[in-house]
Structures
1.
Amino acid sequence: MAHTVYLTNADISLGKRESIYDVAKNLERWVDAVVIRTFAQENVISLAKFAKANVINALTDFEHPCQAVGDFLTIQEHLGSFKGKKLAWVGDGNNVCHSLMLLAAKVGMDFTAITPAGLAPAANVIALAKEIAASTNSRIEISTVPLEGVRDADVVYTDVWVSMGQETDRDSKTKAFSGFQVNAKLMKNAKPTAVFMHCLPAHRGEEVTDEVMTHSSPLCSMKQRIGFIHKRQFFTRC
């Protein structure tokens, strides 16, 4: 049986009230593992460097590996395998995109990141993913054209246009994402059996339409199995 202790930012003010080093040295004496959800990637790196306890990244501004693991478990349960399958990411080249890309490369699934110019995933993540993909015979591609990028995709995935910490850029980012909404027209270019995924919360009417989120009758009449998957949950109303 595992026992947990929940510490909020107000409890420890990581790196402010107390240094990350001191927090790490205290935590390693009390627990076997630390699950940290923070903003700066450097906080996780530093905590893992200083603490002897296992450190799990529950979210940073650069990666979201737990989300990706949960999503790929769902994909495996629904599609059966990763080989020969394609995941198309439509949106910002953000933390979720980074983790999905790296995990796709590891499991041998093709991955295409479709983002506006200037909002592509980090160059070092792309390079690492391509290096890993070379050993698993998968393809990592970057595109700025949504209709072309989602072609033959088994999974179409999106996220909000304005990621955490970028709220002041809402107007400029919303403008940049014109034409990147996941809608019925876009889904038509994916495989007829394609499913839709979102890490939530979703802003209906922005990055995705109500039609795709709820896969209502107009989509079902196209004989497309557009599903909504999140954290091992798959819903279909067709």
2.
Amino acid sequence: MPSPEAVLVLRSVSSFETLYLTRSTTRINDSVTSAINNYVSSKAPLGPGEGVNIARVITNELDSAKFDPLLVRTVARNGVKLLDSLVSRLDGMVSLSRFALDID
């Protein structure tokens, strides 16, 4: 059974970890949202630049959390969830009409 001091330390670290994960997820989500907003406003397909920016943000977040294997795993899971969200949002924007690419 852990000592009372160890329990206090774990609880205090847990609150910092939760705050870190919230900020990390927000940074990744901001990059995904920015890419979607650029797509919606310009009507141009997402290019390699947007993908690189999202990958860079996720890589930076993983690199920042590398001191704790469990934290890295949680950051990676959050990144996967946000990438799945990006794919779902983009799938919803794809036109399935055969006339969508009809060029005169």
3.
Amino acid sequence: MEELFDKDDIAKKPTMVPTKKGVEDVNIGTTKNPKLVKLLKSLSPETKGKYMSLMKEFVDAFAWDYSNLKVYDNSIIHHIIPIKLN
């Protein structure tokens, strides 16, 4: 983590996020049960097909709504977000 953030918790090399204009919604589910993911519009058809195949193969690994989220024992797993004063 030290390689990613400076002492003030600011990313050293921030990544660029594509704008909404550069992405498209792609359904990897069915018409009755859509599962939308976002892919870059600029992907080649071959690359887009590879991504879609991969995501369809592992569609059960994604949480599509709150009922898909697992509940963990807080005494075992506990995440703290440090907040600096001021």
4.
Amino acid sequence: MNKRMEEQELAECCKQGNVAAYKELYERYAGRMLTICLRYINDRNIAEDLLHDGFLKFFDSFDKFTWRGEGSLRAWLERVMINTVLQYLRKNDVMSHSTALENVPEVYEEPDQAFVETIPQKVLMQFIRELPPGYRTVFNLYVFEEKSHKEISQLLGINEKSSASQLTRAKATLATKIREWMRKNS
């Protein structure tokens, strides 16, 4: 396995339980999957544990994977990893660990997009990681996974209004952090 396999060949070899293919899958996708875990989980050790749990799920459930063209393997891996993280968050009742609602305004002024684009991505991702777990989870699902409030409510076992409220408060908190960063760095 010196040369890198194409995605479809890699998926087929993994389906057959090929250990070298498992190793290549891990080497190819672990970084991206860890990034997904860290978007939801602020503790690197827990995120790494979830990464490994996710890979075990991949290896155990390859029979459920169906090739649908280039990129379908990565999309499937991301879905399984996100579900692994959400399962952990539900089990640990993360949605009840949000900041008291009165501490964050319902209405806020969005920062100018041109200024936001000048902030390094690493800084923006840190701001997201600093959100309370419930806000961070809803924000990630809505913004990065493009889920509707209805879908989020089903995934997290909350009502749609709670999802919308958590998203608004996440955005308000981020807007405040962005404005503070812009003041310090202008």
